[in-house]
Write a structure and sequence with these properties.
Chain lengths: 123, 213
């Protein structure tokens, strides 16, 4: 039988599932047998350092900073590429140089776009 | 199984135990306190958890910042009337089984501020306290002693039968009334189910244990 190859995997799978389900089942049996559930309005309420929670959790946040963060990230990655690019510049073929320049131009274009959209000035 | 046989077996390298012992051993060896302090006593509580006194030796080093994961509430410090509702609410939000250590004169009775208009005269008016530690502030050794006392208390608890602790009895409450700040005092001023005014009726003195009616 070729199936025998996978037998250890199946055994491990069942043992793994047992480790996950076993404690949960034990806890369930324990709760049924000895320790009754005791829930109540305060216990089920949202935890907020002892204070009653105030207002709605679904509020709007001004995402002002995230565009900065994204632009920073992009140029961070660009710097990582620029360094090896500068080192290996002498040995490049035409096609490699052009593809690198296209990469740079795309990013610079993005910066110009960001500038025009006024996202670089904090308001 | 009687103790003698158990000891004999243990000497031979066989550990015999009961479900109850195992359960109590597990509970008493992993009491996680709730991470909060109220006043000067909290400094001593913090010192107890640090390397010099090392509460971690008893399995209680994990101070949980959420009541959902905590087993023990150490009321360490002055409970002002403004703070009392929050303390009771946090206690209510803790999962069973839960224990309370009332640390210091303030948490027991109001301590040096007993005459103060804004200080609660003992947290036991609202939540059931397991161990009281007198002192102002109690030294870390006193907190360790209280902790060991709580462990002994847990060790003696029954798993079945009418004497089993509150968290095993379905009909006993797990939540207690949260007081509210009103014009002059908290309402209600106490939870009558767990705390009564210690009034002594002189004519009953000596007849029954508490001297009450
Ligand atoms: S009992 Fe003493 S040390 Fe503790 S909180 Fe009260 S005043 Fe501070």
């Amino acid at each position: 039988m070729t199936n025998h190859m996978y037998l250890p995997v199946i055994v491990l799978l069942i043992a793994g599932a047992g480790f996950a389900i076993g404690p949960l089942a034990l806890a369930w049996v324990w709760a049924k047998k000895f320790s009754p559930q005791k829930s109540g309005p305060t216990k089920n309420a949202i935890y907020e350092c002892g204070l009653e929670s105030n207002g709605d959790a679904w509020i709007k946040f001004k995402p002002g900073y995230y565009i900065y963060a994204i632009i920073f990230l992009i140029f961070d990655v660009e710097a990582v590429f620029l360094l090896p690019f500068a080192v290996a510049f002498g040995g490049f073929t035409m096609a490699q140089s052009i593809s690198m320049l296209v990469f740079l131009i795309l990013l610079v274009e993005g910066l110009v776009w960001a500038c025009q959209k006024n996202v670089l000035s904090w308001s | 199984m009687d103790e003698q046989l158990k000891n004999e077996l243990r000497r031979q390298g066989v550990v015999a135990t009961t479900l109850q012992e195992l359960y109590n051993w597990g509970r008493k060896s992993s009491i996680w306190p709730l991470n909060f302090g109220l006043a000067c006593c909290a400094i001593e509580m913090i010192a107890t958890t640090m390397a010099r006194y090392d509460l971690a030796r008893f399995g209680a080093e994990v101070f949980r910042p959420s009541p959902r994961q905590a087993d023990l509430m150490i009321v360490a410090g002055t409970v002002t009337k403004k703070m009392a509702p929050q303390v009771v609410r946090l206690y209510n939000q803790m999962a069973e089984p839960k224990y309370v250590i009332s640390m210091g004169a303030c948490a027991i009775s109001g301590g040096p501020f007993k005459q103060g208009y804004n200080v609660l005269k003992g947290i036991d008016r609202y939540i059931p306290v397991d161990v009281y530690i007198p002192g102002c502030p109690p030294r870390p050794e006193a907190l360790l002693d209280a902790f060991l006392m709580l462990q002994r208390k847990i060790d003696e608890q029954q798993l079945t039968g009418p004497d089993r602790p509150r968290h095993l009895q379905a009909e006993l409450p797990s939540e207690f009334t949260v007081p509210e700040c009103s014009e002059h005092d908290l309402t209600p001023t106490r939870n009558d189910a767990i705390w009564q005014v210690p009034l002594v009726n002189i004519s009953n003195a000596g007849k029954n244990e508490s001297g009450r009616d």
